[in-house]
Design goal:
Elements lengths: L2 E7 L5 H12 L3 E3 H7 L6 H11 L6 H12 L7 E5 L5 H13 L6 E6 L2 H9 L1 E3 L5 E3 L7 E6 L9 E6 L15 H23 L4 E5 L4 H13 L2
Parallel strand pairs: 1-3, 1-4, 2-3, 4-9
Antiparallel strand pairs: 5-6, 7-8
Helix pairs in contact: 1-8, 4-5, 6-7
């Protein structure tokens, strides 16, 4: 039986980490529209060229093109038994298209996993996070063991202090996503999430497939709740 999961949640809710666990446990790939758009930059087929032209013009990729990209990905062999959709659908037009496309294949969206997190915690998780080259993740507010954090003042006083992090004892310098360093950028992402997600939640709740997961608990506890939701769907 196929398994099609839509993973939703505000920044910092842990979608990426939990998606990897779903991949490993259920044997289905994560499909991120961000990754799909980036992959189009190195392809030379007609669909890729269309996406390249849209992005080169600084325009948003329209619904029809986004749907075509997702259909192209779902047709690949590793997606035969289902996928974890992250970042898609973004609106009700895309959601309706997805449902129709899956119905043609005799499949459906089995579960919409909504990882819930209060906005203040979401902000701190994004603003304070740094990562190592091996994929390890740390946070100024929550997970600082083994890491030296410091705020470095701008010598000219023209910019806010910069958060720097290194492995304790003078080790590796840890990286911070540029958009996480801007409080304004994080707030805009939160606003966008609230504006675009709530209508979709209502849309899927009408189909009784939304499963709300408390993301403000340990990683293992979140995974236990997710696994239970998917195994007893």
């Amino acid at each position: 039986m196929s398994l099609y999961v839509i993973l939703m949640g505000i920044q910092g809710a842990g979608k990426g980490l939990q998606a990897k666990r779903i991949e490993e446990h259920f044997g289905i790939p994560q499909v991120s529209t961000g990754d799909l758009f980036r992959a189009m930059r190195t392809r030379t087929d007609d669909l890729a060229r269309k996406v390249q032209q849209i992005m080169a013009a600084g325009q948003l990729v329209d619904d029809d093109t986004t749907n075509a990209i997702v259909v192209d990905r779902l047709a690949q062999a590793d997606a035969a038994r289902g996928v974890i959709l992250d970042g898609y659908p973004r609106n009700q037009v895309q959601a309706a298209f997805l449902e129709a496309h899956l119905a043609e294949k005799g499949a459906r969206v089995n579960s919409v996993l909504l990882l819930e997190l209060d906005l203040f915690t979401a902000f701190k998780r994004a603003f304070g996070r740094v990562s190592a080259a091996d994929g390890g993740s740390y946070n100024y507010y929550y997970n600082a063991d083994g890491v030296d954090f410091k705020w470095t003042q701008d010598p000219a006083g023209q910019f806010p202090p910069r958060l720097e992090a290194t492995v304790a004892g003078g080790g590796e310098s840890l990286k911070r996503r540029p958009d996480d360093a801007s409080a304004d950028a994080i707030i805009k992402r939160i606003d966008t999430y609230l504006e675009t997600t709530q209508p979709l939640i209502s849309y899927f709740e009408a189909r009784d497939i939304v499963r709300r997961i408390n993301a403000d608990q340990s990683i293992d506890s979140v995974w236990t709740d997710i696994k239970r939701a998917l195994e007893y769907r």
